[in-house]
């Protein structure tokens, strides 16, 4: 158990809909990362938050947004969903300072039908 | 931005044989390097990491990796592969200040009996 909790584990929704994925980082970790893993794109970095503020942005679509709350949990919002958004979405967290080791959650499998 | 290349998409080795998975990175400063393993349906687990110091790092499950700055490489090795090592392996690079971790495309390892 990595200590990173993601909910839900599975999500099936229709095209055009909006979903929210939730991540609870390990206790004490300030950084939260979101990744998308699909067969054709591999493991893509989406966005990182550090202590509530956006720290780095990767290949995140404009239809997607994220935030980190004061209690450090994070949510990834995916809107106007398309079939191609079907993927495994991972959250990871890491500690402060020089330790950039990231611990990954089990992921949320999103299926858009 | 930093990037990682894993040249081998799929490698097959016999059980008991040695293994080397290749990883090349692109980054202007001293990188933070990682190897993660992902079993089917699971999240990513950290095998080992390099931040500084000794360029040969030992990890879990008998894996080791060597950082070679001159070759911009961080290859993963194991002297004797076990059937349970069959999985997907990801190399990653991060920046200290930004914790912006980028992953390679992954190498799928198949172990023959």
Could you write a compact summary of the structure shown?
The complex is a heterodimer of chains A (113) and B (113). Chain A has strands at 5-7, 10-13, 19-24, 31-38, 42-50, 53-57, 64-68, 74-78, 87-94, 103-104, 108-112.
Describe the structure.
The complex is a heterodimer of chains A (113) and B (113). With 113 residues, chain A is mainly β. Helices cover 0% and strands 53% of the residues of chain A. In chain A, the strands form two sheets. In chain A, strands 2, 4, 5, 6, 9, 10 and 11 form a seven-stranded mixed sheet that branches. Chain A has a four-stranded antiparallel sheet with strand order 1-3-8-7, with no helix packed on it. In chain A, a hairpin with an 8-residue loop joins strand 9 and strand 10. Chain A starts with a strand and ends with a strand. With 113 residues, chain B is mostly beta strands. Chain B has strands at residues 3-5, 10-14, 19-21, 24-26, 32-38, 44-50, 56-58, 64-68, 73-78, 87-94, 102-103, 107-112. In chain B, the strands form three sheets. In chain B, strands 2, 5, 6, 10, 11 and 12 form a six-stranded mixed sheet that branches. In chain B, strands 3-9-8-7 form a four-stranded antiparallel sheet, with no helix packed on it. Chain A binds chain B through residues 2, 4, 31, 33, 35, 42-43, 45, 48, 50, 55-56, 58, 90, 92, 94, 98, 100-107, and chain B through 32, 34, 36, 42-46, 49, 51, 90, 94, 96, 98-106.
């Amino acid at each position: 158990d990595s200590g990173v909790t993601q909910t839900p584990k599975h999500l099936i929704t229709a095209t055009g809909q909006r979903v929210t994925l939730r991540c609870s980082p390990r206790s004490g970790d300030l950084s939260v990362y979101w990744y998308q893993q699909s067969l054709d794109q591999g493991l893509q970095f989406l966005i990182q938050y550090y202590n509530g503020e956006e720290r780095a942005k990767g290949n995140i679509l404009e239809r997607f947004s994220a935030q980190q709350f004061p209690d450090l949990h994070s949510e990834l919002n995916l809107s106007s969903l398309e079939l191609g958004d079907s993927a495994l979405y991972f959250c990871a967290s890491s500690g402060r300072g020089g330790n950039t080791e990231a611990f990954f959650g089990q992921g949320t499998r999103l299926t858009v039908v | 931005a930093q990037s990682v290349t894993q040249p081998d998409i799929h490698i097959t080795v016999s059980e008991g044989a040695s293994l080397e998975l290749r990883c090349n990175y692109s980054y202007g400063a001293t990188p933070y390097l990682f190897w993660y393993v992902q079993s089917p349906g699971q999240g990513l687990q950290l095998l080992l990491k390099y931040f500084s110091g000794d360029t040969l790092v030992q990890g879990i499950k008998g894996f080791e990796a060597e950082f070679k700055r001159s070759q911009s490489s961080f290859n993963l090795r194991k002297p004797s592969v076990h059937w349970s090592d069959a999985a997907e392996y990801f190399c990653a690079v991060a920046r200290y200040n930004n914790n912006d971790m980028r992953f390679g495309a992954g190498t799928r390892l198949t172990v023959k009996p």
